[in-house]
Design brief:
Strand order of the largest sheet: 1-2
Strand content: 5-15%
Number of helices: 6
Radius of gyration: 17 Å
Shape: globular
Structural class: mainly alpha
CATH class: Mainly Alpha
Distance between the termini: 28 Å
CATH architecture: Up-down Bundle
Number of strands: 2
CATH topology: Four Helix Bundle (Hemerythrin (Met), subunit A)
Order of helices and strands: HHHHEEHH
Largest sheet: 2 strands, antiparallel
Amino acid sequence: MLAHYKMFAGYNTWCNERLYNAAAQLCDADYRADRGAFFKSVHGTLNHLLVGDRIWMRRLTGQGEQPPTLNAILYDNFAELRTARHVEDKRISGYIANLREDDFGKTIRYRTVVNPQELEQPLAPALAHMFNHQTHHRGQAHAMLSAFLGNDRTPSFDLIIYQRETGDGALRRLT
C-alpha cells in the first residue's frame, strides 16, 4: 500500500506542475473569469486545491495552517500561489515518504470544516479521499483551461502518462 500512495504523491506533484504551467499561459482576465465551476474560476479552483490539501495535512499531521473556509482565497497573486503549491506538494510527498506500511490501518480523528462534526477514519481511506479530491478539482481546472487554451495546449493529467514518463506504478516497457 505504501508504494501506491508514494505513486499518488508523485503523481500529485507532476499534475500540479503541469496544471500551473498551463494556467500561467492565461491572461489575468481569463484566469479570474467565472466559468461556472464550483469554485468559479481557475484562480478559485487552484486556491481550493491548496485549501483542501492544507486541511487534510493539518488533520494528518496536526501541523500547518487551517484555512477558514473551503472557498478561501489564500493567495490572490498567481506567483505566490504557485510557490505555496510547490511547498505543499513537498510537504505531502514528505509525509507519505515517512509512513510505514502498518500506519495505513491506524485511525485518525478530525473535525470537519462544513457542518462541523468530529469524525474518525482509518488513514488509508482518508488518503484515498485526499488524492481523489485533488484529481476531481484538477479535472474542473483542466476543463476551464481547455476552453481557454484549446486541447492542444492543455496537458494531459492521465495517470498512465505519468507512469509512462516516470516508470512509477511498476509500469514496464516490453518493446
